[in-house]
Each structure stands twice: as structure tokens, then as C-alpha cells.
Design goal:
It is a single chain. By secondary structure, this protein is mainly α. The chain contains three helices and no strands. The chain has helices at 3-25, 32-42, 59-69. The radius of gyration is 23 Å and the shape is flat. The protein starts with a helix and ends in a 17-residue tail after the last helix.
């Protein structure tokens, strides 16, 4: 048996087990009321400090504001897979 054959078989087993688990975990249908409950639980509190920062999505907007207010720009950039699977 070649290495990729064993990997493929392992992947098939993993996917099959995952599908079975997901079917059993989601046996109850998602209702509007349950969605609203879950959605409200996942919202951050309104008094968190990061929400008071005037974040800018576009770099040019941030540059314009930084130049006007004579402040630096903080850039958070990542390289690679968003889940850290690099």
C-alpha cells in the first residue's frame, strides 16, 4: 500500500465519522427563536475597549485620518492560512 493510499483511506474514514457526528449533533432543526438566542449569546459586550477604537478598513482612509491628526498607523497583517494551517 502506498503512502498516499493510506492517507486517502484515513481521510475517507475521518470525513465519514465527521458527517455522522454532524448529523447526530444537528438532529434538532434550527428555529428562528434558537437562532436569535445563539446570535445574542455570540455578540460582544458593548463596553469592550476594542469597540471604542475608530478602526479603518481601507488603508487610504486610515492614511488620510492619520495625516490629518498627526498620528501613526497601526497595521495588523497576516501571511498564510487564516486558521494557522501553514
Amino acid at each position: 500500500m502506498r503512502c498516499y493510499d493510506a492517507s486517502f483511506i484515513g481521510l475517507v474514514i475521518l470525513v465519514s465519522a465527521s458527517v455522522g457526528f454532524l448529523r447526530s449533533a444537528s438532529a434538532e432543526p434550527l428555529t428562528d427563536a434558537r437562532f436569535e438566542e445563539l446570535h445574542s449569546q455570540l455578540q460582544p459586550a458593548g463596553d469592550e475597549l476594542w469597540q471604542s477604537i475608530p478602526w479603518k478598513i481601507a488603508l487610504l482612509d486610515a492614511q488620510r485620518v492619520a495625516a490629518r491628526e498627526n498620528k501613526p498607523i497601526f497595521i495588523w497583517a497576516m501571511d498564510g492560512h487564516p486558521l494557522g494551517c501553514t
